[in-house]
Amino acid sequence: MAILEVHNIEKHFGPTRVLEDISFELKRGQALAIIGSSGSGKTTLLRCLNFLETPNKGTISVEGKVIFDAADPSTQKESEVRKKRLHFGMVFQSFNLFPQYTALENVTLASKLLAKEREDYKQNKNRILMEIEAEGKALLDRMGLADRADHYPHQLSGGQQQRVAIARALALHPDILCFDEPTSALDPELTGEVLKVIRSLADQKTTMIIVTHEMAFARDVADQVIFMDGGVIVEQGPAQQVIDHPVQERTKQFLSRYAEN
Amino acid sequence: MDVIFARLCEAFVINCELFFVTLLFAIPLGLVICFGARSKFKPLAWLIKTFVWVIRGTPLMLQVIIFFFVPGLLKVNYGINIPTFGRFSGAAVAFVINYACYFSEIYRGGIDSIPKGQYEAGEVLGMTKSQIFFKVTLMQLIKRIIPPMGNEIITLVKDTSLARIISNKEIIMMANEYTSKGLIWPLFSTGLFFLVFVGALTLLFGYIERKMDYFR
Ligand SMILES: Nc1ncnc2c1ncn2[C@@H]1O[C@H](COP(=O)(O)OP(=O)(O)O)[C@@H](O)[C@H]1O
Ligand SMILES: [Mg+2]
């Protein structure tokens, strides 16, 4: 069964329709790449999944349970949205690390705040905090940043910052991890280290949605690819099929521009 | 000379009192004004913005005079009974309101300068609005407002001498009494009081800024 089902999502900002009739599914352990030219609505789609935007139409279900239904306000309660968005993790194009915290603190902050809501927090406070700390360190280690745990964001390169941001998102164990052009803000020589980390997450069967302009990467790492244009899904299917043998004319045009470079 | 110096010190206490009272009330009141101006209820936001514009657009000296004299004049001329202020409290109220308006603008600038991505990063990590404010944005806000607050607070030190316009015997007014008796050095020496005070504040703000240098 699909871990994520998105049905007929539509989003407009005032009169401009940015997403139209977006539907797709994602299976547990799979990676989905979303490609498309700038302005096609990719970021908006990820933001809808993370409850940063409220779609005007459509439903979002995780593990068969409807967590968002535009027609049903009871699925949009502020208090529950906070819990629901934890199904998703988000890695932003611009990292958005918290500058006043070290790499490790960035990774552990949200877990520590959430732990306070646990019933056994008062009794087991020290143990819980130590576990969170240990997990944070382990995550940074996985990102190849064990020796950077005590560095502040401004002391890290862009690639290192983005890897901290990935660790921060993983710390909350999201069902689905979303990446919005994770390497677009990086110098070319730094994109490799971030892509490598994402590739290793895919190897470990992390469920992911990756918005990217790295076509070769999308073909190799993703199981599924969606090509978007003008707010609609033009083509979707297995990664190699969509990228190597696109069916739609618009997909071919888009990909041929990348082939030239 | 010792006597004159002692009296100057005594008078400077008034400046200091006005300084601290203004800070104590204007810092939180500025926050209230700042939130009011950002209110979703547009008429309130509009009213407060207009008020801030008037206060920042007119001389503090004028405001001191108005707060001191107008309540009494309203009572005498129109029988309107609103509480009047004493010399010190009249000056203090005018100062608090004036500086709260300036501080509110500094807070606003600070809040606006925090990238939207900081709030969004907190939100997608399941933080509540108040957790985002206290754990994510507050420190960044403080770091950004410290330098402009420092400037404004240093201006306040010197502005306190405006209180003499409604006969508060602050240090310059005191020194002026000696000037009219032909003695000029007390007036010049008041400058030293201000210089020392401002110097101490400059050191303090420099220290705080360095303390917050660990992040950008
Ligand atoms: N908050 C917003 N208000 C109005 N228009 C927006 C807003 N966010 C995005 N848009 C518009 O929606 C369209 C899709 O944007 P986006 O999702 O960022 O595309 P992509 O990530 O594919 O480049 C663009 O035309 C953009 O101008
Ligand atoms: Mg985008």
Can you put this structure into words, describing what you see?
The complex is a heterodimer of chains A (261) and B (216). With 261 residues, chain A is an alpha/beta fold. Chain A has one domain (2-260): P-loop containing nucleotide triphosphate hydrolases (Rossmann fold, 3-Layer(aba) Sandwich), CATH 3.40.50.300. Chain A is built from 9 helices and 10 strands. Chain A has helices at residues 42-49, 78-84, 103-115, 121-142, 158-170, 188-203, 215-221, 239-244, 249-260, and strands at 2-13, 16-27, 31-35, 57-62, 65-69, 88-91, 176-180, 208-211, 224-229, 232-238. Chain A has a 6-stranded mixed sheet, sandwiched between helices. In chain A, strands 2-1-4-5 form a 4-stranded antiparallel sheet, covered by helices on one side. In chain A, strand 4 and strand 5 form a beta hairpin. The longest helix of chain A is centred in the middle third of the chain and has 22 residues, at 121-142. By secondary structure, chain B is an all-alpha fold. Chain B contains 8 helices and no strands. The radius of gyration of chain B is 21 Å and the shape is flat. The A-B interface holds A 50-52, 82-83, 85-86, 88-90, 92, 94, 96-101, 109-110, 113-114, 152-154, 168-169, 172 and B 115, 117-118, 120-128, 131, 135-136, 139-140, 143, 214-216. Adenosine-5'-diphosphate is lined by residues 13, 16, 18, 36, 38-44 of chain A.
CATH topology name of chain B:
MetI-like fold
Structural class call of chain B reads mainly alpha
Strand residue percentage of chain A? 25-35%
Q: In the CATH classification, which architecture of chain B applies?
A: Orthogonal Bundle
Q: Low-confidence segments of chain A, ≥5 residues, pLDDT <50?
A: none
| Overall domain count of chain B | 1
Q: How far apart, in Å, are the first and last alpha carbons of chain B?
A: 51 Å
**What general form of chain A does the structure show?**
globular
Strand order of the largest sheet of chain A: 6-7-8-3-9-10
